[in-house]
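Forum: Protein Structure Q&A
Topic: Joint prediction for protein chains with partners

I've read a bunch of threads here and the consensus seems to be that you should model interacting components together rather than docking separate models afterwards. I'd like to see that in practice. Below is the full input, 1152 residues plus whatever partners are listed. Could one of the regulars post the assembled result?
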Amino acid sequence: MLKRYLPILQWLPHYNRHTLIDDTLAAFVVTLMIIPQALAYALLAGLPAVVGLYASILPLIVYTVFGTSRTLAIGPMALISLMTAAALSKVAPPGSEAYIDAAITLTLMVGILLTLMGALRLGFFANFLSHPVISGLLSASGVLIAASQMANMAGLPNAGFTLTQQLANLWRHIDALHPLTLAIGFMSLGLLLAIRRSGPLLQRSGLSAARARFLIKMGPILVVALATWICWLGELAGRGVAVVGHVPSHLPPLGLPSTDSDIWRSLLVPALLISVVGFIESIALAQMLAAKRRESISPDQELIGLGTSNIASALSSGMPVIGSLSRTMVNFSAGARTPAAGAISGISVALITLFLTPLIKYLPTATLAAIIIASSITLIDTGTIRRTWRYSRSDSAAMGATIVLTLIEGVEIGIMAGVTLSIALFLYRTSRPHSALVGRLPGTEHFRNIDRHDVESDSHLALLRIDESLYFANARYLEDTVYDLVTRHPEIEHVVLICSAINLIDASALESLDAINARLNDSHVTLHLAEVKGPVMDRLKSSEFLDELTGRVFLSTYGAWKTLSRNDGAPQHSGD
Amino acid sequence: MLKRYLPILQWLPHYNRHTLIDDTLAAFVVTLMIIPQALAYALLAGLPAVVGLYASILPLIVYTVFGTSRTLAIGPMALISLMTAAALSKVAPPGSEAYIDAAITLTLMVGILLTLMGALRLGFFANFLSHPVISGLLSASGVLIAASQMANMAGLPNAGFTLTQQLANLWRHIDALHPLTLAIGFMSLGLLLAIRRSGPLLQRSGLSAARARFLIKMGPILVVALATWICWLGELAGRGVAVVGHVPSHLPPLGLPSTDSDIWRSLLVPALLISVVGFIESIALAQMLAAKRRESISPDQELIGLGTSNIASALSSGMPVIGSLSRTMVNFSAGARTPAAGAISGISVALITLFLTPLIKYLPTATLAAIIIASSITLIDTGTIRRTWRYSRSDSAAMGATIVLTLIEGVEIGIMAGVTLSIALFLYRTSRPHSALVGRLPGTEHFRNIDRHDVESDSHLALLRIDESLYFANARYLEDTVYDLVTRHPEIEHVVLICSAINLIDASALESLDAINARLNDSHVTLHLAEVKGPVMDRLKSSEFLDELTGRVFLSTYGAWKTLSRNDGAPQHSGD
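Posted by a regular:
Agreed with the consensus. Here's the joint model:
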């Protein structure tokens, strides 16, 4: 029991020198990645760069205690930072004290919501975000994030959370473009993209694949070091290039968030969306990697792990944190063995915050913007968009709505529209179930669609197979189908509903079956059922329907055929 | 084409003296019922009594032209009047000119919405109101309507649209109770209920069943006549008994509604709900009766019929109209043959409005309240509540939420909560699909659940039957089920997913199948499919899944068994 809620107890007793060495090596690489990413994502969220570091200390240590994934590397993440900025800008002006306070409140709310969802075992809620919606959301947010950082890269003020607002902002301030900043931005971006593509070149020049991968992952920290050095050397801050500036060299101040109920109320919906999106991203990542190593993840405990990490982030002046795709992959491939690697990273970030922050004083924000752009364009996944379009028009519709609305109305509206449309389309599809009149494959006990196969049939007997569970949204459609059938074929004396694909009959559908039974009876047609599944039958027995049914319930379609058909062809099998 | 949009062209050419006689007789009975009901429902909607008459003239004539039901008797109806009152009270004080104007605007909006829904063929939307939700709504509104009329029956001011508000209102004004009014109200109610139960007595005293039914249906008009006569005789209006008072003896003034966009905006949601509820009630009634006589109803044209009737009602100073249950049943059993019966009723009401309104001047409103109470208590359907509870807990939950929220928060919140909960519960149920490991019934080609039947199985071969369509809400659950299976049974070499109950695989589920295929491959387990339906297979062929599938697609489970099983028992059939 205790082990379930404190997963650390499962691995800590077996911890030894070997695991420590593996974890420390992985943590070292991850820490080098955290620094530029944390600074950049804090900037994306409209917060001081140091907040990103604060969010990468205590939360990582807390996740080590409560998380179930052995390799998930948590911390600030691009999409969540964008959503954070959009939420906060509604309650306070960016850059103000109130904005930073609101960020802490939002983080605490996310933490509480995730923990509550875990405690109430609501992990399954995440299933309602369909894959096309998530994929559309990520692609659109890649575009949005890149667009938002164009302004930072050009030395312009950054404004807006929709593509239209951002493009309008760029257009409006185009005159204020700062060429030197832009040059540093483009240089950083070019270098980042070049390093990312340098794998084959590095290997050809004799490096092992693993070493080449490591060097590529270190690209951002190299670019940060180079740009900072150039800025310091050229005294570019004095020539109008925006830099990170003075960062206080102390551990995050501990404190409590605002208790203003208006702020809590207006942050509730964004906090909920951040929680759900963050959870889905993290759990998908954690499950994928756990499966590769045959470890297991508990979604509900994972919610508690992420929730407590966010609460820790809020209490230490941080921002919302979730599992980071890039750092988790590096942590996994660098060989982290236990969640202790996360705690070691957290402690390393704390040491860097204490002793090395003076080094980033001259880091240009245009370089951080370039890092965000380089990583956000990898979110744009045209492969999935194409594949979904080929596979299913209605899934594409949900994806398209998510993309378009995210771009022009922002992330929140985009998600909500995508989820609503996914559900509506699913209900619409199931509201007009496929059904088929079937006939007997001559000489067999098998029955097939009379429109697709050459089968025996009997004009007095309609064998109707319904390919969907029966519930309120399709109950009336079923009635229409049956009435239409007997109206078009007045010679029908028996209707057999073949229920092999019916997994559920709800109360509305039961009323419809009652109505069908009564109306067919009025016109001297008998209603039968065949191949009713066990759970459905159990349920029907608790109603009065079976007493009122004018016909019988057959175990198999062949049984119904044998009993009801007047067809002359003598049955060639005797089994039922 | 013209006949589709003008259903009158289908029957008018065959109209003759016989149909005219039948229609006129039915119209006579229905008109006698309309008068008290129309006055009472106008009162329930907070409108002058005469508005109920206005709404029973032109709309009936218009429905004759555009409606497809031969027997639907339209006009004001209890639940719709209650919803009208709730909607109007938000935009104007009851009794004011603005309130009457808003009623006309609301009626026009309902008309436009219904007509548009018909033109856009959106009739299927009504399917999302499940039977338990409608039934719960009717039961709860029966209670609400009765409670709201208690005040009128006792001579107290009427206030509130939730049970709590109404009970508080009664309690607050209990001192102002008017004993004489209450006496008339109770007398009227007692008489109405006594007449309703007098069927057996009347038949025992020698009347035919048909005549007894006719007399019972005339109960309200008899009570109205009696109460009016008593009031006139005893000059009770002078002694504080509220009466209908002077009713202008002219046809409804034609006119246009308000163009104030604020009012339109705040009436939009109520208008939509009134439209959907009104449509469902009408179409259910019309279809039930049409089926009895083997006539047919077009739901989309029916929307246009109801829509144009409401537009006609708005243009002639009326209120929202829909199919009335009690009058439609009487119209049907009195032998109406064509929609002309409705037009004849409409003309009769016009004549009564012109010449007989002075007669209702002394009609006490307490008697109208008693008529509403007597009819609203018939809406409370404890039988369905009990049946639903026995049949399905989750349908009962949707019904219970609808009832409770309608009573304490009003009709609109009640409907929306019921619909949301129905959909959420359906998604939840399908998100954890039933699945079963199956084995072979010895010596046959049939396969059954290994937990329920005594079957052959093979420890290297898992035959997993999934009893639900695969879509985003259950895709991850499927992954968990399969991974859990192979983790618990490391000896498994082949997993066969039996797809006989899978009617749909959406893009999210396809991703999950891809993931399952890849992960099983990692642990040297082969994935196969069996019994994939035609439409599902067509879809899979348009993706890359089948190319990547490590195993095969079998036509039948038996085929998979024959090929993959190592079980020693030699197959006893040779068919595949």
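The mean pLDDT of chain A is 87.
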